[in-house]
């Protein structure tokens, strides 16, 4: 089960890494900005859409309740 905060944190991390690689290469042509946009934005959105997973079952809710102090 992924928490929404983790999904968005991973997506932001991916976008920042892609931007850092882009800036370290140093190509500033208009086509390279389009490639950056695709490489930095598409994978986090795909990951976020696929990471929903199944809903939490009642057994998981009860187990999580017992584990809390």
Question: What does this protein look like?
Answer:
With 69 residues, this protein is an all-alpha fold. It has one domain. It has 3 helices and no strands. The protein has helices at residues 4-25, 30-50, 58-67. The two termini are 21 Å apart. The relative contact order is 0.15.
Q: Unreliable segments (pLDDT under 50, ≥5 consecutive)?
A: none
Q: What distance separates the N and C termini?
A: 21 Å
Percent in strands:
under 5%
Helix content: over 70%
Q: What is the averaged pLDDT score?
A: 83
Distinct helical segment count: 3
Compute the CA-based radius of gyration: 18 Å
Largest sheet: none
What general form does the structure show?
elongated
Could you give the count of β-strands? 0
Q: Please write the string of helix (H) and strand (E) elements.
A: HHH
Number of domains: 1
What is the SS-derived class? mainly alpha
Summarize the structure in short.
This protein is mainly α and 69 residues long. It has 3 helices and no strands. Helix content is 77%, strand content 0%.
What are the main properties of this structure?
0% strand, mainly alpha, 69 residues, 3 helices, single chain
């Amino acid at each position: 089960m992924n928490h929404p905060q983790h999904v968005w944190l991973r997506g932001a991390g991916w976008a920042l890494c892609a931007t850092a690689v882009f800036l370290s290469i140093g190509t500033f042509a208009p086509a390279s900005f389009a490639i950056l946009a695709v490489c930095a934005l598409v994978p986090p959105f795909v990951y976020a859409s696929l990471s929903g997973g199944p809903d939490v079952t009642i057994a998981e809710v009860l187990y999580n309740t017992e584990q809390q102090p």
